[in-house]
Task: inverse folding
C-alpha cells in the first residue's frame, strides 16, 4: 500500500514562506489597523449610529461617557415600577388590591396587604372602590422585569413606564420599594373610572350600581311615554315583562 | 467596672498625628485602588452577555480603570459574580473568593446572583450573600450597562471612603462587618 509522501517544508503547499515566518509584516499590519482606528476616533469617526443624550462636543465616537452622557431608552423600555396615582387624589394609588400582579409574578416579588374603605366614609360613599393596598411592596432585587404585572393589572395601576432603571445599592434592604417610593408619576384615568360617575347631574341609583348590581336591586325606572305601562308577569319561572302602549 | 467602660479614650498628640497620617495614606490608597480594579468575572449565565456589553467599546468599562479581566483569582481584587449560582457552584465560588488576595471586593451582578431571582428552588443559591460578603448589588435581568456602571461607581465611592469605616490603612478588611457571614468569621480565624 502506498503511503502519501510525508509532509516536509519542501512539498507542503501550505508551508509558511519567509514573510510569514518572520511575523514582522503581519505584526505591522495589525498595528496599522489599531493605529487607523485610533486616529479615526481621535479625529472624529463617521459612525452614523450615535444616539447619545447630553453630548456636548461634536464627537462621533461610539463610546458613551455614561454618567455625563446617556443613551436614550427605547419607548417600550420596562424600567422601574411605579404605582399610578388616582386622578382625583394623587396621594392614593389606583390599585384596588386585587392581587392579580402578585399572583402572576413569576419571581413572587410583590407583596400586598389589602385594606377596606369604611362604608361610612363620605369620600367613598358614592364610589364603588372597596379595597386599597395597605401595603404594596416590590422587591426590586428579585424582579426579573418581565412586565407580567403590568399586563395583569385590571385597573392600569402598576406600570413600568418610568423610563429609569433600578439603581444599584449597597444593601438588599434598599431594594424593597414600598408605596411612598412607588407612588409617583402622572396619574392615569379612563372613562370607566368611578370618580367620573359622580360628577353627573343625577345621583347614582344605587351605591353599587356599576360594580356589582344584584338581580332586582337598584333597578332603573324606565322613562315611558304617556299612557304606556309595564306589567311584569312573575308567575312563570322566568319573569316576563310586557309592555303596553 | 462600669465607669471604666464609659471612660472616653484619651487621644494623645502622638495618637492624633498617627491618625492623621494613617488617614492620608488611606485616602491615597483608596484613590489608587478605585481606579485600578482588576476584575475576576465569575460568569455562569446569561448576564455574562451583558458583562461583555459593558466591557466592549460602547460602554467602555476601561473608563473606570476596571477593563482588565484577570482569569486567575490571585491576580484579581474585584469578584464579579455574573449569573445564577446553584448549589453545586457555590463551593467553587467560595473557594475562588478565598483565593483572592486582600483587599478584595464582591459585586453581585443581576438578580440571580443577588437573590436567586425567580429560581426560588432547591437547586439555586438564594443570593451569594449567603456565602460571601457582597459590597454592591446590581439589579436587573439582565442589568443594563448603565446599571453596572452605576454599581461600579458606588463601589469606587466605597473604596475611596473605606478609611471612614474603621479600615486599617494597609487595606485589610476589618474582622467583622455588619452583614458579614460565616465565611468572614472563618477568615478571621485564619489570619
Result:
Amino acid at each position: 500500500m502506498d503511503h502519501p509522501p510525508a509532509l516536509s517544508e519542501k512539498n507542503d503547499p501550505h508551508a509558511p514562506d519567509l514573510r510569514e515566518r518572520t511575523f514582522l509584516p503581519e505584526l505591522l499590519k495589525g498595528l496599522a489597523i489599531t493605529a487607523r482606528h485610533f486616529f479615526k476616533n481621535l479625529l472624529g469617526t463617521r459612525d452614523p449610529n450615535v444616539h447619545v443624550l447630553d453630548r456636548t462636543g461634536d464627537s462621533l465616537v461610539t463610546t458613551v461617557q455614561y454618567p455625563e452622557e446617556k443613551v436614550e431608552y427605547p419607548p417600550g423600555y420596562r424600567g422601574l415600577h411605579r404605582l399610578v396615582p388616582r386622578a382625583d387624589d394623587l396621594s392614593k394609588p389606583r390599585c384596588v388590591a386585587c392581587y392579580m400582579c402578585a399572583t402572576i409574578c413569576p419571581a413572587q416579588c410583590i407583596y400586598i396587604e389589602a385594606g377596606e374603605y369604611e362604608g361610612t366614609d363620605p369620600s367613598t360613599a358614592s364610589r364603588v372602590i372597596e379595597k386599597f393596598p395597605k401595603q404594596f411592596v416590590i422587591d426590586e432585587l428579585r424582579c426579573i422585569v418581565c412586565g407580567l404585572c403590568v399586563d395583569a393589572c385590571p385597573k392600569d395601576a402598576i406600570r413600568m413606564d418610568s423610563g429609569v432603571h433600578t439603581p444599584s445599592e449597597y444593601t438588599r434592604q434598599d431594594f424593597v420599594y414600598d408605596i411612598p417610593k412607588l407612588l409617583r408619576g402622572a396619574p392615569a384615568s379612563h372613562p370607566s373610572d368611578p370618580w367620573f360617575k359622580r360628577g353627573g347631574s343625577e345621583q347614582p341609583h344605587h351605591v353599587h350600581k356599576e360594580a356589582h348590581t344584584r338581580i332586582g336591586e337598584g333597578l332603573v325606572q324606565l322613562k315611558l311615554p304617556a299612557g304606556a305601562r309595564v306589567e311584569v308577569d312573575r308567575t312563570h319561572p322566568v319573569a316576563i315583562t310586557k309592555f303596553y302602549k | 467596672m462600669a465607669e471604666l467602660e464609659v471612660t472616653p479614650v484619651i487621644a494623645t498628640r502622638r495618637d492624633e498625628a498617627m491618625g492623621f497620617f494613617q488617614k492620608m495614606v488611606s485616602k491615597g490608597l483608596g484613590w489608587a485602588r478605585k481606579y485600578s480594579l482588576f476584575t475576576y468575572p465569575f460568569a455562569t449565565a446569561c448576564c455574562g452577555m451583558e458583562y461583555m456589553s459593558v466591557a466592549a467599546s460602547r460602554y467602555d468599562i476601561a473608563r473606570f480603570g476596571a477593563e482588565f479581566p484577570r482569569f486567575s483569582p490571585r491576580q484579581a481584587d474585584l469578584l464579579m459574580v455574573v449569573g445564577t449560582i446553584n448549589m453545586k457552584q457555590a463551593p467553587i465560588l467560595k473557594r475562588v473568593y478565598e483565593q483572592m488576595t486582600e483587599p478584595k471586593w464582591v459585586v453581585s451582578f443581576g438578580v440571580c446572583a443577588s437573590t436567586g431571582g425567580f429560581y426560588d428552588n432547591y437547586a439555586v443559591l438564594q443570593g451569594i450573600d449567603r456565602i460571601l460578603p457582597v459590597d454592591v448589588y446590581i439589579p436587573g435581568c439582565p442589568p443594563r450597562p448603565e446599571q453596572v456602571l452605576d454599581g461600579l461607581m458606588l463601589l469606587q465611592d466605597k473604596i475611596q471612603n473605606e478609611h471612614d469605616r474603621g479600615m486599617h490603612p494597609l487595606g485589610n478588611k476589618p474582622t467583622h462587618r455588619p452583614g458579614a457571614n460565616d465565611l468572614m468569621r472563618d477568615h478571621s480565624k485564619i489570619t
About this structure: Chain B touches chain A at residues 57-60, 63, 111, 114-118, 120, 127, 129, 135-141, 143-151, 153-154, 158, 179 (CB under 8 Å).
